[in-house]
Every structure is written in structure tokens, then in C-alpha cells.
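note to self — DONT lose this again. spent like an hour looking for the file last time. sequence + predicted structure for the chain T wanted, 209 res
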Amino acid sequence: MKKHELTIWLIVALLACFIGYADAGMWHSENAEITGGTVTDNSVVRGDGGAAGMQDSGVLIDDSDNVTGVTTLTVDGAGESSFVGPVTMALSHITKTADATLTAAECKNTVINNVGQSAEMTLTLPTAAEGLTFLYEISTAAQTSHVKAGASDKIYLDKTALDDADKVSNNGASSEVLDSIRFSTFESGSGAWDWRADTLHGTWSDGGS
């Protein structure tokens, strides 16, 4: 048998083996095995524990290398992240129209508005902790709204410290659409966190306790 004929024979044999595994619904690699079932087109396959088990996922990478389906992406704080090209991040918009205590999840990179507010309203902040930040924006004017710190927390309004549990107020008599203020947490001591409130538009004042 000539050398080139042997090479062709080996290629055909390898293809036949691969097709045989595919027809049986089985794929093998050195450390992984997928048996039976189906895998969604373009999905990222992940481990399923046990003896080299694998499973489908909701994360998709399309043929143009666009990634979708990621619910939460956590980056190690000690590492670095860099991006080439534009990065688009969608902010969640939350509507509050009556007294409520905000959750930490509602204060993570969100916009909170008062669309439809019809009476005075107080929003109480969650316990100050690392990584909380949100924009509070007036969408319905002529209604007084307050944002209040928790019992053990303090708000620094435009760098002025208010008393513990005091609130920042936007008076309905002078409020206008798009009056806005940004709240975020900062480390005020070793392991201690408080809130800062930075006025962007409109009049925001110390509303007391």
C-alpha cells in the first residue's frame, strides 16, 4: 500500500469512528462525556458532576460571537477587567408610589422613580453595605418624597453629615420633573458603611427624623 493511500485510509477510518459515536448520541474527549439527549444550538455546555457528566446551559454564543443569557457575572475584586470596544449596561427602573423599605437588590445600579405618586412618601434605605448605588428621580412632581436612612446609618447630603436615621427630602411645593439625587455607600470607618447623597438636579434638604 502506498503512503498516500495509507493516509487516506486512516482519515476515512477516523471519520467513520466519529460518525459512529455521533449516531449513538455519544461524544467522548479525554475528560468529558455527553450521552443521549440534545444540546441547544450555540449554548455553552457545562459540567454536571459525577463521572464526567455534562449539561446544557442558557448561555449562548452566536455565530458572530455575541454572548447572551448571562444572569449574573461576578468578577474577582482582586483581578482586573478590560474591554475592547463599547460596553452596554442596562439599568433596571423601579417605581415606588407609597412608603416602602428598599431592599439591597433594589439599590444596586438602579433608577428609582415615583411615577404615579399621589401622596407624601418615605423610602427607607437598607442597611448601608459595600457596593450599593442608585439614582432617585422625580417623575411625578408636586408630591413630597423622602429617602430615609436606617436606625444605625447616616446620610451625608452633599458632604454634610445628617443625624442617624435622618431623611433627605424633596418638597412637593417646589419639586419638578427630573429632580434627581444619587445615593451610594462609602466606607466611613473600618468595616463600617454609610450613605452619601449627591444632588444632581432640584432642591434636596435635611428632612430630619
